Amino acid sequence: MTAHEGAIDVLVLGGAGVDTIVYVPELPLPYADSYMIDSGIRTRAGQTGDFVALSLTSLGLRTHHLDLLGDDPEGDLVRALHRKRGIGFTALPQPAGTKRAVNLVGPDGRRLSLYDTSRAHPDDRFPEETLNTLATASRHVHVTLTQPCSHALPALIETGVPLSTDLHDWDGENPYHEPFALAADVVFLSAAALTDPERTIRRIAGRGRAEVVVATAGADGAYLLADGELNRVPAADPPAPVVDSNGAGDAFAAAFLYGRLMGEPPQRCALYGAVAGAYACTVPATRAEAIGRDELLARADRTRP
């Protein structure tokens, strides 16, 4: 499938796949020969790139997704999700098959993810012409950590299109993440594995191109570095009971980018992110659902700045 005609607001690069969701009685899960899973074990389309693309589309942005995808039942699930939600999708052949993972979700909504790394190869590449055509037709490109995105970074920088990335639970040291951190204009990451979030945030901005760095901290809100100033962003109140943290970071990033593309200041963008992330925590991981623009704006207006 090729890109829609006309301008793209956000091109999402990589991160297409399927997750198998298992609700477990507790995390960490004690060893046992077997567990009875009364809530069911469900496989659905949606990994980080899919959820960012879904969230952006739900907010009214013209979104296109580019990734490698297998000719397999899992790939069919991903294609069907994009068709159903009206997300533009360029799916290139992946002989190794569609990316997949197993997510164990505890009663408090925390998750443990098991990623199948056999579904990608370090030498995977996006065709240069395809990448350049889609990137130059876009106002912004969001780059996931998955292969073959790392190889695409030099070409993306060359286009001059603004870039964002999500480093997820980077510890500030793993060398795989660093090229993404230093190439992006907007960097998202989780503070979960950081012993000194401020140090890591300032290091990213000091060594790379980032104008904005956001480190999310769950119920403790987020750290926002913009214009050289570090501020704390309060967490937003979820609109319903928290059931699952899957996709909260993707929702935060998408809503922040929505605000940025609308010309909002960073603090307002971060408020949008907090509201969208809180909403995502109320949606079971077995469903692919994101907050809409009207609800995001209404909830943001009711939340303290």
TrEMBL record:
Keyword Metal-binding on this protein?
no
Gene3D superfamilies xrefs: 3.40.1190.20
| InterPro entries assigned to the protein according to its UniProt record, in alphabetical order | Carboh/pur_kinase_PfkB_CS, PfkB_dom, Ribokinase-like
Pfam families assigned to the protein according to its UniProt record, in alphabetical order: PfkB
Span of domain Carbohydrate kinase PfkB:
188-288
Q: Give the molecular function GO annotations.
A: kinase activity
Q: Which UniProt keywords apply?
A: Kinase, Transferase
Name assigned to this protein: Sugar kinase
Phylogenetic classification of the source organism:
Bacteria, Bacillati, Actinomycetota, Actinomycetes, Kitasatosporales
